[in-house]
Structure formats: C-alpha cells, structure tokens
Amino acid sequence: MRRSKTIFQSLLLVAFSAIVSQPVFPKAERAKASKQPVAKPIIWRDPGNITARDLRYGPGSAQVAPVGPFVFVEEAKSGESPKFKVRDARGDEWTVKLGPEAQAETVSTRLVWAVGYFAEEAYYFDEVRIDGLPRLSRGQEFVSGNIVRGARFEPERSNMKSGSSWDWQKNPFKDTRELNGLKVLMILLNNFDARSGNNRIIYVGGPTATEARYYVTDLGATLGRAGGLGGTRTKNDLADFLSTKFVRGVDARDGVVEFDYDTRPRGLGHLSVFHPIYYRGEVNKEKAMRGIPVAHARWIGSLLSQLSDEQLRDAFRAANYSDGVRESYVAALRDRINQLTRLPSRTQRR
Q1: Number of compact structural domains in the chain
Q2: CB–CB of 303/45 below 8 Å?
Q3: Quick check: is 211 in a domain?
Q4: What is the CA radius of gyration of the chain?
Q5: pTM of structure
C-alpha cells in the first residue's frame, strides 16, 4: 500500500516538475534586475539577546497580525500549495496558504528569524472565516462553507519590494559563515525545496531602499523527510522527521561536516531531466549544501543553542500543534542543535 502510494506521489511530482520548470516571466525578471535599487546586501543581522526573542510571533508581532473579518480577493494559481488572497479589517492584503505547509512554514520562519536571518511573516489560524469565499480550484478539502481550516497568512507590506532571485553558489556572501549557517538551517529543518528559485532579494525602505535583504522564502517543505523528486520526501510529518539523521560525521581531510541531506531526483523523478531548468535547480541545490566547514556549523549551533525549549515550544504553539507532537519536535530539534555544538573544534588529518 505504501509503495503504491509512493509511486502515485512520484507521478504527481513529475507532473508538478513539468509545471514549475517553466520559466515564470523570464522577460520581466530580466527587466526587474536592471531596475533594482542600489542597496546594501544583507543576509544576516546580529539578533542580539537570542534568549529574549519572541517565537510566538517571530518576524511579525501582535500589533501587525491579521485582523478579521476577512474578505476574499482572488485565488492564486502558482506554487504547489493552494493559495488565495484576502483583505482584512485594516485593509491589509494577505496571501493565505492551505495544506501541510501551513503549519511547517509558520514554525520554520520563526526558527530562521530567531538566529538573525530574514524570514517572511507567517500567522496561523486553525479555523478562520473568509467572507465571499467561492469554490476553490485547489484546496477545497480544507473548506467548509466560508470556514477555512489550517491557514497560514502572509502579508504584503508596502515598504518591502520583491526583487530577483539569488543563487546559493553565486552571491555576495560566498564562503562566509553567515551563508553556510543558513544552509545548515535548511538541512536542520529538512527543507527539501531549498532551491534557488525560492531565494528572493527583498528591498526594504520604499523607492529609495537602503537594504537588499537575502531571504529564503516558502519554508513549508520542512519538518518531514528530505529527499529528491520521485523519492519519499515529506513535509510536516513528525514520524518522518524523527526517522532521519542530521549530522553523519566530519570529513577529517577537508574539515567539513557530512550531513544526511540528499535531494537529488530519484526513480521517476529523473524524468524531470526533460525539464532542464527545474532538474538543474534540483541538482545544484543538493551540491550547494555540501562542503560546510565545521567552524561554520558550530557557529550556527552556538546561536541555536541559546534558544530555550520554551522558545521552541512557542514556535509550535504559534502553529497550533498538539502537545504531544510539539514536545516530540522540540526534543528532536534540541538533539540536532546539540549535534552541532558537539562537533569537534578541530579535525585531525589522517
């Protein structure tokens, strides 16, 4: 039964690759790149007192959280998860995501933000009323009348302008501990969709932006099992997350950490080779996550280790996980953090 389900999911993933591999607005991307404001590139900012970080709201806050009533605006057809836009009582516009990514993304954005990286605001509703909601082309299984279950809200802020994507291997931060620390976070969360297409430069400050912030967006393909297209990768699945390893060891010859992270296409996933843009992105993503120096992994581990279990619990409370599931995830994350802090400070060559 599980094998037939896996084959079926693989076929769906191959079909999905045919969709996402098509270049979206290629001319617009080139035009956008030529018009980007001149701003200082930033990928990480000192988070200060990490023990005081509020993971209940993460990069957002209670003051700017969505406020009902909510009115349907339009359905969004892009991406793998069902999405639509709404307007809240303040007139702010939000993108609502449904499905298993909603909870996982809510948690992952908080963990990334907690240690100094940039992450999108995410607010989770177990149930929420959406006035004027039509029948959706995707995600109707999460809808009962005008009530939507398991919804992640992400805002559109007027002072933030989305720019071009950025590549893991070609960026202003190559070989820095800050870039490698972000890679370690992706591996720690089992983010199997950490391809460059989900990396985005966000310009902050309006028309005269002074900062070009490097984000990893769409953090929903996390907290399950990492794997390649056509394999047994999952998202927001506790059992699968617990079944995977994290640090496999240290290569003493090169002084780099060997992680349990392989997202190369598997089985039927190799058919995505007929869609070279997507296939190349999948292969490059896996390569980019290799060769992380021990010192850089220990550095991000030292930041994560400052988070208390209660702070970690708050991240899962924000996404309304049950008590038992929350505690299991917290214990698993603590174990992974400890694996980083226990890495040898020096590696001995044989």
Answers
A1: 1
A2: no
A3: yes
A4: 20
A5: 0.85
